[in-house]
Amino acid sequence: MTESQSPARSPVHEFDYIADPGLLADCHARYWELKETAPPVFWTSAHGGHWVCNTAASVQHVVRHPEIFSSRYLSIPPNPNQPKMIPEMLDPPEHRAYRQMLRPFFESKAIEPLEDRVAAWTDALLGEVVGHGECEFVGAIGSRLPVAVFMELFGFPMEKFEEFRALVTGFFNSQASNEVRNGLAQQIVGNLAKLIQQRMAEPRDDMISKIIVSEVDGRKLAFEELMSIGFLMFLAGLDTVTNAMSFGMRHLAHDEKLRQRAIDDPAVIPNMVEELLRRYAFVATPRYIVEDTELEGAQLRAGDCILAPLPLVGWDEGLTEDPKTVSVERQFYRHAAFGSGIHTCLGLHLARMELIIFYRAWFARVGHFRQIAKGDESCRGGSVMALEHLHLAWDA
Fold first, then answer.
1. Cis link prior to 203 (omega < 30° from 0)?
2. Which residues pair with 387 in a beta bridge?
């Protein structure tokens, strides 16, 4: 039976997770509106047709049941030609061995030695803007700090910093065509291949050298596997912190009370980071359904795709009292900003470190600040949402 002949999916609520105008204006406001107006799980005809989770319970069910909701395609509609990213695009049982191999590189004790370098990069970037009294935050700091940290951690030569930053911002530009993005992906792959070949010949004390000599199921990784892991780390490591920082700074620009609290008591900053992650999570993860199943009363079929917007977990009234309000007085900060289940982000400790160090340095050197209305603070839709521009000003 063809798709056009198959029984209609229901309930239907039209929504385009990439190009919805409300999403592009303010992605969190639009998803909150959906949460209040759309069915718990609904079908939309956008992008070939797919399901959308609209409750915390449905999101958590999808990300915690990989045997039904597969990661083999991380795009809607599915793209069989998408470069495979290990371990993100693997399901159990093959996923486990790769994740177990990578986990030690990202544990708290493994990234502790990076703290001084993250602080140094943060201070250097702040030093370039503090005296000006204003900046376009995403371009000046948000998109630069994670690039520097990743390059140093992974083993890329720092003289390629500006080249890498241009690759990252170009790749994630929502206006980029598929042709442009594919071209940038090939440049990223070329840089990765060169680095891996160099480290195979001459290992150093960096992450890629250590991954090269690691084993999975009693064997060394093939070159293609190393490339796949590197490509995932390149993309995931560079975009995530940028987005968390940008959405957090947008909120703080309008929350004088919380800014004052962070200035007066820097010890509150780790809680502030968690609360901003809860309120402004930014990933909507696609999954591919491999067997017929029911979810929140909707009949899902094998071969369908489903989108699981992670912000909904932090916005659930059953998990968080008054979830719309940002408060650093909570006993628990329940959210899924770093995912949930087997694909929880490996780099979450590093991301938290970067965010905490940044906010401490910002409030120590800048203090209060405000958002300048420039009219171009639009959002990027898709599976990883972002704030494309954020103009800030302060008293220098």
1. no
2. 379
Name the residue type at position 160: K
Predicted local confidence at residue 174, as pLDDT: 62
Cis before 93 (ω within 30):
yes
Tens digits of residue pLDDT in 76-90: 988 877 777 889 899
Domain 21-393 adopts which CATH fold? Cytochrome p450 (1.10.630)
Note the pLDDT of residue 181. 80
The angle formed by the CA atoms of residues 308, 178 and 30, to the nearest 5 degrees, is 35
Q: Where are the beta strands (DSSP E) in the chain?
A: 41-44, 50-53, 69-70, 134-136, 215-216, 219-220, 284-289, 293-295, 298-300, 305-309, 370-371, 379-380, 386-387, 391-393
Query: CA angle 211-342-35, nearest 5°?
Result: 130
Q: Measuring CA to CA, which residue among 144, 149, 152 is closest to residue 168?
A: 144
Does the CA dihedral 367-368-372-376 come out positive or negative?
A: positive
pTM score over 0.90? yes
By the 8 A CB rule, do 84 and 228 touch? yes
Angstrom CA distances, 32 to 14, 43, 49, 306, 307, stand at 15, 17, 22, 18, 15
76 touches 289 (CB < 8 A) = no
> For residues 116 and 357, is the Cβ–Cβ distance under 8 A?
no
Report, as ranges of residue numbers, the positions in the chain whose pLDDT lies below 50: 1-5
How many angstroms separate the CA atoms of 143 and 240, rounded? Answer: 10
Task: Determine the residue type at 76.
Answer: I
**Per-residue tokens: 343:** 């694909």
Do residues 207 and 155 touch, judged by C-beta distance below 8 A? Answer: yes
Four-residue CA torsion sign, 82, 84, 87, 93: positive
132-189 pLDDT per residue, tens: 999 999 999 998 998 888 888 889 888 888 888 888 778 777 667 778 888 888 898 8
The first and second tokens of residue 256, run together, are: 């004088």
Q: What is the pLDDT, as a whole number, of residue 58?
A: 98
220 backbone dihedrals φ, ψ, rounded to 5°: -75, 155
Contact 232, 194 (CB under 8 A): no
Cα–Cα distance, 111 to 279 (Å, whole number): 26
- pLDDT, one tens digit per residue, over 323-363 is 999 999 999 999 999 998 888 998 999 999 999 999 999 99
Judging by beta carbons within 10 Å of its beta carbon (0-12, 13-18, 19+), is residue 212 exposed, middle or buried?
A: middle
Domain spans, the chain = 21-393
